[in-house]
Amino acid sequence: VRALMDELYDYFVNSTLPAHVRIALACCLNMCGAVHCSDIAILGIHRTAPKADHSRVPNVCEIPSAVASCPTGAIRGDMKNKTVTVNDEKCMY
């Protein structure tokens, strides 16, 4: 996401585009980035099961929401350690 936005930054700051353009970038098929209502939509798809950075999960993630968002149930919460685990075999990526 960051690399793409860095590449497009100058077009939006310098107003070099011919009209107002709405670009959305989503990282999964859940379309949480309003991809369906944008002029240009980019969908990133995981090729491998995502890895959890266990040192950051408690600070940046709501564990129940992360567990609920997995359509195959591959993400499990580990409330004792305040992190998540990913079952690679159940993961659809």
TrEMBL record:
SUPFAM superfamilies: 4Fe-4S ferredoxins. Transmembrane segments: none annotated. Pfam families: NIR_SIR. Residues 2-51 form the Nitrite/sulphite reductase 4Fe-4S domain. InterPro entries: NO2/SO3_Rdtase_4Fe4S_dom. GO terms for molecular function: heme binding; iron-sulfur cluster binding; oxidoreductase activity. Coiled coil: none annotated. Gene3D superfamilies: 3.30.70.20. This is Dissimilatory sulfite reductase subunit B. It comes from uncultured sulfate-reducing bacterium. The lineage of its organism: Bacteria, environmental samples.
